[in-house]
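[scheduler] slot 2 assigned
[scheduler] job type: sequence-to-structure, two independent chains
[scheduler] chain ordering preserved from manifest
[runner] begin chain α
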Amino acid sequence: MLGGNRIFLRNFAEASAHVVNLLGRRLEADTVMVVSGEGPIGTVVEVFNRELPLAREGQEIPFGSEFFASLADARRDLPVVIPQTSKHSLTRAQYPAEGAEERSLIGFPLSYSDGRKFGGLIMLGAEGFFEKGDLELAASMVLFLSYAAESEGRQQEDRERIDRLNADKQNMEAAAEAYRGEAQAARQSTQQKADFLAFMTHEIRNSLNGSIAMSDLLASTELEPQQQEYLEMIRSSNQFLMTLANNILDYSKLEAGKQSLDVSLLDPASTIEDVASLMAPRAIEKRVELILDVEDRLPMFVQGDAGKLRQILLNLLGNAVKFTHQGEILVKVHQAPPESEGEIRLEVSVRDTGIGIAADKLAGLFQTYQQVHDSEGRSHYGGTGLGLAITRNLIELMGGRISVFSAPGVGTDFQVSLPFAPYAEFDSTTMAPLKLNDLRVLVVDDNPTALAVLERLLSAWEACPSGASTAEEARSLLDRETFDLVLLDMHFLDLAETISDSTGAPPIALLAPLGTAPQLSNMSDVRFTVFKPLRRLQLYSALSAIKS
């Protein structure tokens, strides 16, 4: 399946179709087919025929997994090569010589990671048409197909897990609604129990949304390292859910004013970047750009409650993604002047271009069970109406404050100010200055906010950035100036190809949404890809390698 300049393959059948068409175009093969089967007879999954219909989809042929297993094991997984099909016992009946024309056959076994064979990739062509390069290309496609088959099985397991999570979430939401109705007519103690259950339901939804988002992202990738990374994120979300279960009395403590802070060593920049990466798949799915603008000279470490900071950011970003259907979400973080001696104060702004909030709804925004986006008392967007009330309580518990500015059709800006204690084990709580020593970078991004953030960040690192929001502006700057690197958004892949084809072109780096896989086979000048939302140290490390 095509998506812009990217290719997304949803299952083994689509991967097989992509491979047979690719090899059919690249090689001088009459027929390319993918065969799948667990026994001695294989079934053609996908086929490419150049002229004669030598095979068809669904056809049963004697090239099953047992055939490949017996030959491949004996030959140490080398490809099966039959130079003349009319003279081989397996193929003479199906592919005899036609007149004076003889055919060659080459077959590669398809294997799971445990070594089990489940089919093969088979190519037919004129006698002796296969060259070394053909074999190498076909071998790489076999690895890809084997991975795709195994990945499809894992995706099915993920879908089943998501279905179970969705069913649990619906049951919990139904239970919370039932308790809420009973609480309206019950005594104060019953009301408190219902509030507690609703609180737990809301927080469990946050964690489930994290698991679901990461599972969706895992299903869309074909890279093993990325897959492992996203699985670790899922495990992190599930661990967070277990922590909630183990601390089920926290809500009552919060209401009674007995909730305490778990103060420990905290890296504020990494914590905020981690939360943004967790929410990014949902924003990408809605085609909303999530932008991070983290001040370069933030303290490297502070002392504070990382879990509550994470919970606050998840609630605010979750709302921003839910109510934003186009445009962008900007998370801006900077250090503010301290308001008391010995504190480090950070200010976080979560600004979106979503549906906004009417002025008469702002007063009740942080009250329990308030739904500001509803129709005749029923919310179109769902939720318990507890998220912002919990967020405000957590912020106030940490000694901070929250404010909101909004207008219907324009968007919403939540601004949070939080105090932290310095980390006394370091002489300086700020990272050593990052320097790129006049690295000349052309930044190309059609989002003005993202472009401005990148230019400001590069300037702070003492690079020399020049920005362009269109391909025409970028080409004009390239004609007039010399650059060490072109850093461009993935929307400009055509421009990347143009730059790569020009003589003496600077190297290129791509900015791509998290979880995408740009097709870069024809662009040798692309040095690396940095994923959005940007992590500062990852970007800096990549740029430093260019400079060195």
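[runner] end chain α
[runner] begin chain β
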Amino acid sequence: MTTTFGVLGPVAAWSGSGAPLELKGPRHRAVLGRLLAARGRVVPLDLLIDDLWEEPPASAAGAIRTFVGDLRRALEPERPPRAAPRLLVTDGPGYALRPEPEDVDAWRFERVLSRPAGLPAVTAAAIEDALSWWRGPAYADFADEPWARAERSRLLELRLTAVERLAEARMAMGRAADAVPDLDAHVTDHPWREDAWRLLALVLYRAGRQGDALAVLRRARDRLARELGIDPGPALAELETDILRQAAHLALPPAPSGPDDVWARATAAYDRTLGLGARARLESTVGLLRTLAVTGGAGLEAAREQRLGTIHAAEQVGDPELTARVVGSFDVPGVWTRSDEQRQAGEVVTAAERALAGLAGTPGQGHLALRARLLATIAVESRGVADARGGEAAVEAERLARRLDDPALLAFALGGVFLQNFSRAGLAERREAVGAELIALSQRHGLATSEILGRLVRMQARGALGDFAAADEHALAADTLAERHERPLVHVFTSWYRAMRLTATGADAASGDAGASPEDAGQDAEAAYRAAARGLEGAGMPGLERGILPLAILCLRVWRGRPLSFAADTEWGPYEPWVRPLLLIEAGRRTEAAVALRRAPEPPPDLLLEALWCLLARAAIDLNDQPMMRRARAALEPASGEIAGAGSGMLTVGPVALHLRALDAALDASHPHA
């Protein structure tokens, strides 16, 4: 498990489980702190000795080696004897500490601040999170050590900058009043930062407190004159003049109240996209659509409705690179393998192919990144389609992303790889590996949305493999991340997972005994499914919602050997071809059932592949349709160790092995041995 380090406060280290590591005495912590301050560079032994002692003893070199040995045991307790250390290494004349960048709080903090400015809400959330990592002054237990001085000053400056950038982001969100308390404390503690005074006056003005804003500027002027003997810089003087004039440029439009207001403003901008600044407007619109898509409900529907219009507008500009950026920037992860709008998905794929053709022959790393994004888009939008192109695009997108060493691009590509790993039954282990990499990559680089996807992928994959304890952990982690980052759609999937889990574990699922579950357990599971379905209402995911509730209940009843009675007007959505034979058998219309079974298409390559094959297998057994039994058996055999449908995280029809045994028995009965 990964060891993490903290210097934003007293020097500390934690195990992968979050438990503090025992670092022994103060000199052990000093060695650790000194190596962290070196930021991966080698610190020669002689310099370490000079930094730890004013008058080094004769045994100093040996003591350092002892400290290093103790630290290595604490930091890598599971390292085999005589195996080379991975973290605290000997390099030439000294030592270096080389953790991953995301494993040191100060390095993570710098990475957050180095990101380009994005949507104010995203920026504010990232900086708020980063500021919460501070446990006190940097290297707090080594404040007087010369080796820590420069690093402490540098990190303090970054922290002060973060406070000011957070205030700017809050203002841009229309939350000026929220920025006042932090900025007030900020200028009190750091009165020589003129930009902090400027920001405090500005947020007060935008919060409707003009008098307080002017008082702050007077306070700043008096303090600078009294204690430093200087006048305020031109920025403060100009702001005071603008406030007195109530200059129009100081005001911000009111903050939107919800996705509908955001969308109204975005579409107003979109109406002007073919005018001045069309390129910038189009790319900004894509960013807005991407953000709306993860909010669910009206936001997701609006993003889906306007995405094609944005792509077509980009194509009208006639710039292949612009079109490629607009098509490839909608990197919203998908966890369900049936598109909400198949026609639109097909048009997006076609546009992506046109953009790829337009980029053909253009050199440069930037174009490689655009190609990778377009290929990942093709992989994502081709999900659930029996076409080799989607899989080929996923493989090539992943290859390019790894070559370019771009974490966000690789996360997008891996999302496409996941969605294309349903070409046959029994691929849960592959999807598990993709989910594990997504989580590790996202944690290293602060990609919250991709980490949520990784958690959901692993929840599904572990469910398919019958490891519900691990699946539970990933469901809980996904819910925690979703709450922190305001991703309401995640709860839809985890609620369905928990309903499915009740179905899968309400009886002796390991033995596959369909009669082992009490009647009330089946009723509880159906009630859980119905409750989960209510969470889908208004979620903006018709590709998931249509037909999933009756299909889940049907699968439960098939597994448990219960009657398959449903209302005549039940809406089966896209699943009707695979359900119809069983319903006709239940109604005693066996001739029609046999025809429906022969006409049933191959189940699509998606999360329900195994479950739908099991339904066909059940109908084929009832009708003694031997060709279909053999087809179903061949399709299901690779998944013999999996739970049918549990990889969907939504429903299950029991262990695949149970259905394979039933098929074998039926086929043997049709051809008795002599």
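[runner] end chain β
[qc] chain β: Residues 255-277, 507-518 have pLDDT under 50 and may be disordered.
[scheduler] slot 2 released
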